[in-house]
Amino acid sequence: MKKKVLSLLLSTAMVASLAACGSTDAGTTTTTTTGDNTTTETQTSDSTTATSTTDTAAAEDYVLETLNIVVDGTVTATVESGQAEFVQQWEEAVSEKLGHPIKLNINQLDHSDYSGTVSRLLTTGQPGDEGYPDALIMSATMLRQYQTTGLLWNMADAYENAEFQSRVTLPSVNENMKTSDGALYGFAPTYGNGCVTYVKQSWLDAVGMKAEDIKTFDDYYAMLKAFTENDPDGNGSAGTYGVIAAGYGKLDEAPYINYMPEFWQGAYPSFYQKDGVWVDGFTEQATIDALARLAQGYADGVIDPDTEDAGTKQAREKFFSNDQSTSEGVFTYWAGTWLRTLTTNMEKQEVDNDLGDDRLVQLAPIQEIKDTWGGYLNREAPVWVITDDQDGNDSREQAIFDALLETMLDGDRVQTLWTYGAEDVHWSTKAESFKTNEGTENEKSYEYADGEFHLKQSPNDPNSLWKKNHLDAVLVIAPLTNGFVDNDELVAEGNKFFTENCVDAPAAASCETLTEVEAELVEVKTTLMKQAVAGEITPEEAVAQYVEAYGDVSEQIVSELNAQ
Amino acid sequence: MSKNQNVATTSTGAPINKKPLGTRIWNNRGYYLMFLPVLVFVIIIYYWPMLGVRYAFYEYKLRNITWVGLKNFETMFAKKEFWTAFSNTLQISITKLIITTLTSVLVSVFLNEMHNMFAKKSLQTIIYLPHFMSWAVVAAIFQLFLSKSSTGFVNETLKSWGILSQSIDFLHTQSMWRPIFYLINIWKETGWGTVIFLATLSGINPELYEAADIDGASRLQKIWYVTVPALMNTVIIVLILNLAKVLNLFESVFVLYNNRVFDVSDVISTYIYRQTFLTAIPDYGYTTAVGLFKSIVGCVLVLVCNYASKKVRGRGII
Description:
A: 564 residues; alpha+beta; D-Maltodextrin-Binding Protein, domain 2; 18 helices; globular; B: MetI-like fold; 2 domains; two-stranded antiparallel sheet; 68% helix
């Protein structure tokens, strides 16, 4: 009898636990107020979909109670860096604007596997499911891939009628994102930004060169050789390199060539529009020439071999490493805020501390870049997209737009949150004084008067100042109206330099065949590029092998693109 | 008497009840009730997910699922990359299995011959340690160690000794990748592999060695004529047991391979990984088909090994 009772108890416990496992029914509750003032509550779960809206419901009547967003690493107010306070202040500010409470759930994915994780999220869920994003960030390339899938909402009307329209200073950013039939599936709150080439001033001094004299590829290459061979770190032995980058070319992310623009020059190893006609840039002579330059750089040892496999983090850390004996003199990376970040990191690593904020010099585009593209490439902006529940009613999507994107550019409180982070956590207007690197030779004092806008110490690193949150105040398409400006001269200088020396990158290509085979093409092109740079095959052979294996597919893609 | 001999019995010798199934279940309902949670658990955790193999017959992109029959398999068999991965999997796995087993045997024998217990235990501990390091850490260490860059210890040391004039790109050169991979595997897994062989060696009857001594056998002769034959049965068993798992090769390759050595390093699991996780909008149907094929081949290998096991040691592995 005891055995039976025990077995019964065990069975009950197990069944209960399994039932509990299966019942992840913590879905969002949405309340929909219909036109006739009746209210319907729908509890959504894994197996149910929020379909309580009716055709008669007006967009403004939809009450969005929970907003689930998926973001990448560009939201710098991470969980460790005051995200909770950001969310709390956002909820307060937006609830006040909307006139009803709203809860914000942020799902911040690993930046390096962002597109893959997004793909899995969108595959395995549907609007209303817990974890399924109402809105998310996408790169321009991702947007092109997804905008034809039906998963994204066409926000063209919402964008046209948005309140921030009257303050938009760069309307072309989003106008250029519209499809040929006028649909807008992604909204870019900023323009794209791009990379500029940074050179260590101390190394230039050591080899007796000046940045303003580097005007052509020959000058640039001579500088790299000097950095490799002339002991710029002054330790009396070899080991230094001219340049490092996160890959010779990042062929899976437009604009592909921006980490080594001097070597790629006018080449563009992907599909792009040339004089109004789509072409496959990987098959062009310019790509062969670029690969030959890279191969020469590799053979001469001016390119750090770690470039082949390095991610951006590894490349950055090697560039500003405390051990400069195996470092590099040149690093092409993001403009503006990153000039400050790289300089601060060099300071932390005690590299060239005597030079202060003049450690790095920004190299103007060499003549070959000016002659081809016209300047450094300003990538297509990352965008926010809203998922479409495909119920034929835009009320949910419009409510998401109003809560997230409309407020994101309100010019005031919410935009400040997205630009600088949470008040009194990331920034403040209260009188205060503090020190960074206290007690060290790098100690720096900060003092602010009451009412003076200023950035505070980073929540996760009190020895450095907070820089920004998701939006870059300089890049945003509708500026803040509350006068809050970060006065970091280095950031301003970096942004000014890039703006003066950039051109828009080619628009990303998108067609059915390309979406199907893009990963395969990227893999084979990356392999051939690496083999050509390492000298295992010639650049001509690399392109010939590509054409032989994928020539038909390439032609098909070009044909589809030109037919659009 | 003869009637008693025909009574069917369980493995413990108890006579099997001939009552109807329903009655037997009812009579043993307590046991069945106890077994029920386990059954439910196994079904939900192990068998329910297997229903996903049906997607091998669908095109499955984002939320669009379309029946395509055997098209995914046709696509798979038509792809050069798949066959390269399949061939590499078998070559790398089997070679690795043979090499690591042999080195484990060799090291076990050497350890067995050591009489200084402190040295023996110390050495055992040292060679066991790498087994407990994750493959990600091992890869990071060896990538740094073998780097072509000026941070690469091996290249810089060989150059400073005048042995090399140019750095060697060990992990990016097709002809060198597999030997390096096997060496890293030997470094990491040999120690752990010796455990089972040392256990066998400790079970060898000392009288055999005493007899060999009386016969005037040298140390090498004792190893060759006593130790090695005693180990052979275990070696064969280890080989058979591991042969069933040869297709499960992923992590060690994934952390060490790169584009330039795909032709000699890409295995089925890494191929599936790239197709699934590094593709913007993957076709889960296709990758499920590749996974299903791998499972079928793995299943066949298990059955073959089971048959071989029965032949060699009189009982199967499943």
